[in-house]
Design goal:
Length: about 250
Amino acid sequence: MANKRLLAIIVSCFILLCIIGLVYFLFLKKQKAEEISMEDIHPPEIDVEWTALQSKPELLDAREYPEDLPGFLEQLLTQESILFNGNREKTYESLQNQFPGEPGRVLFAVFLSYAHLREEEKVWEKNSDLSPWERELKRESFQKNHFSKALKEKIFPWSPVRAQRNLVWFLEDYVAKNPYSLSKERWRAVQQTRNELLGDRVRESLPSETDSWRFGILKLVYAREIEQMSETEKQAYFAKLRERTQDMDFWN
């Protein structure tokens, strides 16, 4: 009887140790995968070019590099997916055939970070808990952490249309999270975020601000008031808002 109890205890301990070992192994495996995906993007032989490029992005201005770098990277990503079935070694070989030596290695270093961002974007898009604005914040954070400011501007050039889209996303997110906020608070928040998004490009962006885009902004700002109106009142109020979109001092 004592032997059976001892055997049962030994077996139980063995099973418990196996479970602990399995959990520990899976935890380390997951942790290692996360570290690789976030940090070890570039292999050692490519990391030299990547490090140099961060401080000297003007290297990409040389004539041996593609003139439209963002378009080239997106095309290369599509090529890797369709023609090479995701085989990154073939992507590197293709770059070396087109741009032998250092240019090919430099472009491959840029492509690795660019491709990694696109992979992360797919993960964010699948997360229904994230709003478009929250996904954009993650995208911006990734770009700042993985690209120097000058290199970021080359690969992701500023666009007034994109900035306006992001401002709409911000306001939609703000309204959703602050449904009882006053229109003055919303207007103040959207002005502040607009200044942050545009920086010293405020005047540059004005010509691309359409009346319909401004009208959409105003509808979000005054959504609480509009909800309380009858259809007749809404139409009259919308007419006033449309007049306001054409005001030269719209943002003041």
